[in-house]
Design a protein that fits this description.
This protein has four helices and nine strands, in the order H-E-E-E-E-E-E-H-H-E-E-H-E. The chain is α+β, with helices and mostly antiparallel strands. The protein has two domains: 30 residues; 160 residues, Beta Barrel (L,D-transpeptidase catalytic domain-like). Strands 1-4-3-2-9-5-6-7-8 form a nine-stranded mixed sheet, with helices on one face.
């Protein structure tokens, strides 16, 4: 009986040791996570041999990730920083939110953060909400609609706010006034692909 009990305890000990080893291996090889990110995200950039057709950008706020697509294939996922009040949608100037919705690149300029790729916020949905909430006038509403129909930069000087875009400098914190911040290497990569009119979708 004592011999059987000894074998049983030895078996329990081996199982416990194997469990500890498995946990240590998981910790060592698990994807690195950001404290702002709710799930583990793996970042990568597979630079294609030539600029692909049908480039589009998707930004997932909850993951703090920007996905770059070319020809329907994801060619990169980059870490981003968002507005300092990053949990909700942008409502008005000065709220510190990064907007949610479908936009397009409407400006491309060099800036103090290396490059700035402006997006077409406010869009039509933002304009409609702003008009209903009394934040903008009918004239401002009409100008936003006209700009979006023409694929141009919408007015950035209304109470809805504006001048939201992608730029470089620091991707490790939510520090902007509503823009999407990447590392310098990240904005270099996006700048090469995101031409005027490139679709940009921002989701929760």
């Amino acid at each position: 009986m004592f011999k059987k009990a000894g074998l049983f305890l030895a078996l329990i000990g081996i199982i416990a040791i194997l469990s500890i080893i498995a946990c240590l291996l998981f910790v060592k090889f698990a994807p690195v996570s950001d404290s702002r990110i709710q799930v583990n995200v793996q970042y990568f950039y597979n630079k294609p041999s030539q600029i692909p057709s049908e480039v589009k950008i998707k930004i997932i706020k909850s993951n703090r990730a920007l996905e770059l697509y070319g020809g329907g294939v994801m060619i990169g996922r980059f870490k981003v920083g968002l507005g300092y009040a990053s949990s909700g949608d942008k409502i008005k100037e000065g709220d510190g939110q990064t907007p949610i919705g479908k936009f397009y690149i409407c400006t491309r300029v060099q800036s103090q953060y290396k490059y700035f790729l402006g997006i077409s916020y406010p869009n039509k949905a933002d304009a409609k909400r702003g008009l209903n909430d009394g934040l903008i006038s009918q004239d401002e509403f009409d100008k936003i609609y006209q700009s979006i129909d023409a694929k141009e930069k919408p007015p950035w000087n209304t109470k809805l706010g504006g001048a939201i875009g992608l730029h470089g400098s620091n991707d490790s914190a939510d520090w902007t006034a509503g823009c999407i911040a990447l590392s310098e290497a990240g904005i270099d990569a996006i700048w090469a692909y995101a031409k005027m009119g490139t679709p940009v979708e921002i989701v929760v």
